[in-house]
Design a protein that fits this description.
single chain, 199 residues, mainly alpha, Globin-like, 0% strand, globular, binds protoporphyrin IX containing FE, Globin, Globin/Proto, Globin-sensor_dom, Globin-like_sf
Protein backbone atom coordinates (compact mmCIF):
# COMPACT_ATOMS: atom_id res chain seq x y z
CA UNK A 1 0.00 0.00 0.00
CA UNK A 2 1.58 3.30 -1.07
CA UNK A 3 1.22 6.55 0.83
CA UNK A 4 -0.55 7.98 -2.23
CA UNK A 5 -3.32 5.39 -2.33
CA UNK A 6 -3.76 5.80 1.44
CA UNK A 7 -4.18 9.58 1.05
CA UNK A 8 -7.96 9.56 1.08
CA UNK A 9 -7.94 7.38 4.22
CA UNK A 10 -5.47 9.68 5.95
CA UNK A 11 -7.99 12.50 5.63
CA UNK A 12 -10.90 10.36 6.83
CA UNK A 13 -8.92 8.84 9.72
CA UNK A 14 -7.83 12.30 10.85
CA UNK A 15 -11.37 13.60 10.71
CA UNK A 16 -12.68 10.68 12.81
CA UNK A 17 -9.68 10.82 15.21
CA UNK A 18 -10.32 14.50 15.89
CA UNK A 19 -13.84 13.63 17.11
CA UNK A 20 -12.42 11.52 19.97
CA UNK A 21 -11.53 13.35 23.20
CA UNK A 22 -7.76 12.83 23.81
CA UNK A 23 -8.27 11.27 27.24
CA UNK A 24 -10.76 8.80 25.74
CA UNK A 25 -8.69 7.60 22.76
CA UNK A 26 -5.40 5.83 22.12
CA UNK A 27 -2.53 7.76 23.74
CA UNK A 28 0.24 8.12 21.16
CA UNK A 29 2.99 8.53 23.77
CA UNK A 30 2.01 6.50 26.82
CA UNK A 31 0.25 3.64 25.02
CA UNK A 32 2.81 3.42 22.22
CA UNK A 33 5.54 3.13 24.90
CA UNK A 34 3.71 0.25 26.58
CA UNK A 35 3.55 -1.55 23.21
CA UNK A 36 7.19 -0.82 22.52
CA UNK A 37 8.39 -2.17 25.90
CA UNK A 38 6.80 -5.56 25.20
CA UNK A 39 6.90 -5.94 21.46
CA UNK A 40 9.30 -8.88 21.51
CA UNK A 41 7.11 -10.77 23.97
CA UNK A 42 3.98 -9.96 21.96
CA UNK A 43 5.59 -11.11 18.70
CA UNK A 44 5.77 -14.55 20.28
CA UNK A 45 1.98 -14.62 20.72
CA UNK A 46 1.23 -14.31 17.00
CA UNK A 47 0.50 -18.04 16.48
CA UNK A 48 -2.02 -18.25 19.33
CA UNK A 49 -3.70 -15.00 18.40
CA UNK A 50 -4.16 -15.93 14.73
CA UNK A 51 -5.30 -19.49 15.46
CA UNK A 52 -7.73 -18.44 18.19
CA UNK A 53 -9.10 -15.57 16.08
CA UNK A 54 -10.04 -17.83 13.17
CA UNK A 55 -11.21 -20.70 15.39
CA UNK A 56 -13.62 -18.18 16.89
CA UNK A 57 -14.86 -16.89 13.51
CA UNK A 58 -15.14 -20.38 11.98
CA UNK A 59 -16.84 -21.72 15.11
CA UNK A 60 -19.88 -19.46 14.73
CA UNK A 61 -22.33 -19.84 11.80
CA UNK A 62 -22.91 -16.11 11.12
CA UNK A 63 -19.20 -15.32 10.88
CA UNK A 64 -18.29 -18.65 9.23
CA UNK A 65 -20.70 -17.78 6.39
CA UNK A 66 -18.57 -14.77 5.38
CA UNK A 67 -15.68 -16.96 4.20
CA UNK A 68 -15.15 -18.72 0.88
CA UNK A 69 -14.09 -22.33 0.56
CA UNK A 70 -10.34 -22.72 1.13
CA UNK A 71 -9.81 -19.06 2.11
CA UNK A 72 -8.59 -19.59 5.66
CA UNK A 73 -4.81 -19.86 5.00
CA UNK A 74 -4.81 -16.55 3.09
CA UNK A 75 -6.84 -14.87 5.85
CA UNK A 76 -4.48 -16.20 8.52
CA UNK A 77 -1.54 -14.69 6.62
CA UNK A 78 -3.16 -11.23 6.44
CA UNK A 79 -4.09 -11.29 10.13
CA UNK A 80 -0.56 -12.40 10.99
CA UNK A 81 0.88 -9.44 9.05
CA UNK A 82 -1.64 -7.10 10.66
CA UNK A 83 -0.81 -8.31 14.19
CA UNK A 84 2.96 -8.13 13.65
CA UNK A 85 2.72 -4.60 12.19
CA UNK A 86 0.52 -3.57 15.14
CA UNK A 87 2.89 -4.84 17.82
CA UNK A 88 5.88 -3.41 15.91
CA UNK A 89 4.51 0.16 15.75
CA UNK A 90 4.74 3.00 15.03
CA UNK A 91 1.21 4.26 15.65
CA UNK A 92 1.37 7.06 13.14
CA UNK A 93 -1.07 8.59 10.65
CA UNK A 94 -0.27 5.85 8.19
CA UNK A 95 -1.24 3.13 10.68
CA UNK A 96 -4.61 4.70 11.48
CA UNK A 97 -5.29 5.43 7.79
CA UNK A 98 -4.56 1.76 7.08
CA UNK A 99 -7.00 0.65 9.81
CA UNK A 100 -9.71 2.79 8.20
CA UNK A 101 -8.98 1.12 4.86
CA UNK A 102 -9.03 -2.35 6.49
CA UNK A 103 -12.54 -1.49 7.75
CA UNK A 104 -13.64 -0.79 4.20
CA UNK A 105 -12.14 -4.04 2.91
CA UNK A 106 -14.56 -5.80 5.28
CA UNK A 107 -17.59 -3.82 4.06
CA UNK A 108 -16.94 -5.31 0.61
CA UNK A 109 -17.42 -8.82 2.07
CA UNK A 110 -20.50 -8.08 4.18
CA UNK A 111 -18.67 -8.14 7.53
CA UNK A 112 -20.76 -6.01 9.93
CA UNK A 113 -19.58 -3.50 12.53
CA UNK A 114 -21.03 -5.87 15.12
CA UNK A 115 -18.68 -8.65 13.98
CA UNK A 116 -15.71 -6.28 13.86
CA UNK A 117 -16.42 -4.95 17.37
CA UNK A 118 -16.79 -8.48 18.75
CA UNK A 119 -13.46 -9.56 17.28
CA UNK A 120 -11.69 -6.46 18.57
CA UNK A 121 -13.08 -7.40 21.94
CA UNK A 122 -11.70 -10.92 21.45
CA UNK A 123 -8.24 -9.58 20.50
CA UNK A 124 -8.11 -7.22 23.51
CA UNK A 125 -9.27 -9.99 25.85
CA UNK A 126 -6.73 -12.46 24.51
CA UNK A 127 -3.67 -10.18 24.64
CA UNK A 128 -4.72 -8.94 28.09
CA UNK A 129 -4.89 -12.52 29.36
CA UNK A 130 -1.47 -13.32 27.85
CA UNK A 131 -0.07 -10.13 29.38
CA UNK A 132 -1.33 -11.19 32.82
CA UNK A 133 0.30 -14.59 32.35
CA UNK A 134 3.72 -13.17 31.39
CA UNK A 135 4.17 -9.77 33.01
CA UNK A 136 4.09 -8.12 36.41
CA UNK A 137 0.65 -6.91 37.44
CA UNK A 138 1.55 -3.27 36.75
CA UNK A 139 3.00 -3.89 33.29
CA UNK A 140 0.18 -6.26 32.34
CA UNK A 141 -2.31 -3.55 33.27
CA UNK A 142 -0.48 -0.88 31.23
CA UNK A 143 -0.38 -3.17 28.19
CA UNK A 144 -4.03 -4.23 28.55
CA UNK A 145 -5.07 -0.56 28.85
CA UNK A 146 -3.07 0.34 25.74
CA UNK A 147 -4.69 -2.49 23.73
CA UNK A 148 -8.15 -1.54 24.98
CA UNK A 149 -7.68 2.10 23.98
CA UNK A 150 -6.29 0.99 20.61
CA UNK A 151 -9.27 -1.31 20.05
CA UNK A 152 -11.87 1.33 20.85
CA UNK A 153 -10.05 3.94 18.77
CA UNK A 154 -9.67 1.74 15.70
CA UNK A 155 -13.27 0.54 16.07
CA UNK A 156 -14.36 4.19 16.11
CA UNK A 157 -12.49 4.77 12.83
CA UNK A 158 -13.90 1.57 11.32
CA UNK A 159 -17.50 2.29 12.27
CA UNK A 160 -17.35 5.87 10.96
CA UNK A 161 -15.64 4.61 7.79
CA UNK A 162 -18.42 2.03 7.41
CA UNK A 163 -21.13 4.68 7.73
CA UNK A 164 -19.28 6.99 5.35
CA UNK A 165 -18.98 4.21 2.73
CA UNK A 166 -22.71 3.44 2.92
CA UNK A 167 -23.74 7.10 2.79
CA UNK A 168 -21.42 7.70 -0.12
CA UNK A 169 -22.87 4.75 -2.03
CA UNK A 170 -26.42 6.03 -1.41
CA UNK A 171 -25.52 9.61 -2.27
CA UNK A 172 -23.83 8.42 -5.45
CA UNK A 173 -26.87 6.37 -6.48
CA UNK A 174 -29.17 9.34 -5.86
CA UNK A 175 -26.82 11.97 -7.27
CA UNK A 176 -26.75 14.09 -4.07
CA UNK A 177 -24.16 15.10 -1.47
CA UNK A 178 -23.34 12.82 1.50
CA UNK A 179 -24.42 15.64 3.88
CA UNK A 180 -27.97 15.46 2.54
CA UNK A 181 -28.26 11.85 3.72
CA UNK A 182 -26.78 12.64 7.13
CA UNK A 183 -29.37 15.41 7.52
CA UNK A 184 -32.17 13.05 6.42
CA UNK A 185 -30.99 10.39 8.88
CA UNK A 186 -31.12 12.91 11.76
CA UNK A 187 -34.60 14.05 10.74
CA UNK A 188 -35.81 10.47 10.41
CA UNK A 189 -34.40 9.58 13.86
CA UNK A 190 -36.20 12.59 15.36
CA UNK A 191 -39.44 11.60 13.62
CA UNK A 192 -39.17 7.98 14.79
CA UNK A 193 -38.43 9.01 18.39
CA UNK A 194 -41.32 11.48 18.38
CA UNK A 195 -43.65 8.68 17.22
CA UNK A 196 -42.51 6.59 20.20
CA UNK A 197 -43.14 9.19 22.89
CA UNK A 198 -46.31 8.68 24.89
CA UNK A 199 -49.28 10.97 24.37
C1 LIG B 1 -10.24 -7.22 14.94
C2 LIG B 1 -10.95 -7.38 13.83
C3 LIG B 1 -10.33 -7.66 12.49
C4 LIG B 1 -9.10 -7.34 12.00
C5 LIG B 1 -7.98 -6.57 12.69
C6 LIG B 1 -9.02 -7.86 10.64
C7 LIG B 1 -7.92 -7.71 9.80
C8 LIG B 1 -7.95 -7.97 8.44
C9 LIG B 1 -6.93 -7.57 7.48
C10 LIG B 1 -5.65 -6.81 7.82
C11 LIG B 1 -7.34 -7.97 6.24
C12 LIG B 1 -6.60 -7.76 4.91
C13 LIG B 1 -7.02 -6.42 4.34
C14 LIG B 1 -6.43 -6.13 2.97
O1 LIG B 1 -6.51 -6.98 2.09
O2 LIG B 1 -5.88 -5.04 2.80
C15 LIG B 1 -8.61 -8.66 6.42
C16 LIG B 1 -9.32 -9.22 5.40
C17 LIG B 1 -10.48 -9.96 5.58
N1 LIG B 1 -11.11 -10.19 6.80
FE1 LIG B 1 -10.66 -9.38 8.56
N2 LIG B 1 -10.18 -8.51 10.36
C18 LIG B 1 -11.02 -8.41 11.45
C19 LIG B 1 -12.28 -8.96 11.57
C20 LIG B 1 -12.88 -9.78 10.63
C21 LIG B 1 -14.16 -10.42 10.80
C22 LIG B 1 -15.05 -10.28 12.03
C23 LIG B 1 -14.40 -11.13 9.64
C24 LIG B 1 -15.56 -12.00 9.24
C25 LIG B 1 -16.56 -12.35 10.01
C26 LIG B 1 -13.25 -10.91 8.76
C27 LIG B 1 -13.12 -11.41 7.48
C28 LIG B 1 -12.21 -10.99 6.55
C29 LIG B 1 -12.29 -11.29 5.11
C30 LIG B 1 -13.34 -12.15 4.43
C31 LIG B 1 -11.20 -10.63 4.51
C32 LIG B 1 -10.82 -10.60 3.01
C33 LIG B 1 -11.41 -9.32 2.41
C34 LIG B 1 -11.18 -9.20 0.92
O3 LIG B 1 -10.03 -8.93 0.53
O4 LIG B 1 -12.11 -9.37 0.16
N3 LIG B 1 -12.36 -10.09 9.40
N4 LIG B 1 -8.95 -8.64 7.75
Amino acid sequence: MTDKSLGRFYVLAQEFWSQLPPSARFRPLEDARAFSRHKELMRGWVGQVVQGFYDTLFGHPATRAIFREGERPARERTLRDWYLRTVEGPFNGQYFAWQTLVGLVHVRRGVTNAMMAAMWNWVVDTVSRLAREHLSQEEAQALADAWRRLGFTVMALISEGYLHAYLEALAHAEGVEVGVFLQRAQEEAARLLASLSPG
